[in-house]
Design goal:
alpha+beta, five-stranded antiparallel β-sheet, three-stranded antiparallel β-sheet, rod-shaped
């Protein structure tokens, strides 16, 4: 109330105005309150115009410098500009005569609370800007900081909330924090997911098990696609069917998942597929058949070297080597396996520096599996599928040249063909 008495002395015209409005005692406080609100609005307007324009010019200059792709979207300054009117109202509310002390104290506390809230929001937006700037770095995908910044935001909001409550209640912040010590167990229970997520985020960022852009596969969470966001509580995955799956961050620590990043880093995508061959089509090759297969450029050196090797082996057996069941001979399956390996060695889509195998697996009821195990030199899905199809199209088409057949279960058309070949179809139909 002292400030209200000083103002007329400092400004005589205010004293004369107050005296003229004496018959209406409520008009003078109303005019002062309107003037205070007008001053707060003008302060906010001027602050926004000056600071924002200066900042935009500065950002425009930075955007023209090398290494800056454009102006940063700053939302901090508009928030900070809201502090100015609150400070004006807080400083000028004591100049309004006739206000009850309790109301004046409440308005002063509300202004302080507004300043604290505004600063908290400004700091939160500043952390968002820091994350945007950090994500422009080349190594940002390997070690994202979004989870840590979210923890910082939570701490800022908690401190701001406690400060606002302490200000409105008229107590010291330290006393309020001390009183919350008894509620620590309750807070731990409430924020247990946040604490677990924070620990998981630290581990994920530390060992780099998941990064932005990784293809992860987690059947328990119905996630199979690219990681598009790593936050404190959740990791967002865009699945191959274009749906979005959010996986709790702590699940990546407690449950198993598959990360396909190693495939991209190696530069090769694995082909592991088998041809199932009819076991009854496997046999030895005669001299004429071997001569015919020498027409294949890929097999000429193999067959000539194999014939020399077997001739030397059989010659060591003496007279017993002349008997077919004692001698070593070339099989059509072994020759086909050698052909497949040489074909893959020359295929333009097969990675020649990674593992390349053509092997027989254990025979079963579905025939002899001849497995192709190799890697393509392009990990893109469409290219990979095209290369795999091209390889097996060729192998299936060239298979009859070696006297081999692919095994498959008989279908209805196979039985009809057999009946027609025998010519006794009507006899197989029971008479009525």
């Amino acid at each position: 109330m002292m400030a209200g008495a000083v103002a007329p002395v400092a400004f005589p015209w205010l004293e004369r105005t107050q005296a003229a409005l004496a018959p209406w005692p409520w008009v003078w406080p109303a005019l002062l309150l309107a003037a205070l609100l007008l001053a707060a609005w003008l302060a906010n307007f001027v602050t926004r115009r000056i600071l924002l324009r200066a900042l935009r010019r500065l950002l425009d200059l930075m955007a023209r410098q090398p290494g800056h792709s454009g102006a940063v979207r700053m939302r901090v300054v508009p928030r900070l500009a809201n502090v100015v009117p609150a400070l004006v109202v807080s400083a000028g509310i004591g100049w309004i005569p006739g206000l009850p002390p309790a109301l004046s104290a409440f308005i002063h506390g509300a202004c302080q609370a507004w300043v604290v809230l505004t600063l908290a929001l400004a700091l939160s937006h500043a952390l968002d800007v820091a994350n945007e700037l950090y994500e422009r770095r080349p190594d940002a995908r390997n070690k994202p900081i979004k989870g840590y910044l979210q923890v910082a935001k939570i701490a800022i909001y908690v401190l701001a909330g406690l400060s606002i409550v302490a200000t409105l209640a008229g107590v010291k912040l330290l006393h309020l924090v001390t009183g919350l010590g008894a509620a620590t167990a309750v807070l731990m229970l409430i924020f247990q997911d946040t604490i677990l997520s924070l620990v998981a985020s630290v581990q994920i960022s530390g060992d780099g098990r998941v990064r932005l852009g990784d293809w992860i596969e987690m059947p328990s969470q119905n996630a199979d696609g690219d990681v598009i966001d790593i936050a404190l509580h959740t990791i967002t995955v865009r699945n191959w069917d274009k749906t979005i799956t959010t996986v709790p961050t702590k699940k990546l620590i407690s449950e198993s998942f598959k990360n396909w990043r190693g495939m991209h880093e190696t530069g090769g995508r694995r082909i592991k597929r088998a041809l199932y061959l009819d076991q009854s089509s496997v046999r030895f090759l005669g001299a004429e058949e071997r001569a015919g297969l020498k027409r294949f450029v890929l097999l000429r050196d193999y067959l000539e070297g194999k014939e020399r090797e077997l001739a030397e082996w059989n010659a060591g057996l003496g007279a017993d080597g002349e008997l077919p069941f004692n001698a070593r001979r070339v099989t059509n399956l072994g020759t086909f396996r050698a052909y497949v390996e040489r074909y893959l060695r020359r295929h333009p889509r097969v990675h020649q520096e990674l593992t390349l195998l053509v092997r027989q697996l254990q025979p079963g009821a579905t025939g002899i599996p001849l497995e192709v195990y190799c890697f393509t030199n392009d990990t893109r899905w469409a290219v990979y599928e095209g290369a795999q199809s091209d390889i097996f199209d060729h192998l299936l088409a060239i298979l009859p040249e070696f006297g081999l057949r692919v095994f498959q279960n008989p279908a209805g058309a196979d039985f009809r063909t057999l009946v027609d070949a025998r010519g006794d179809g009507p006899d197989l139909v029971p008479s009525r």
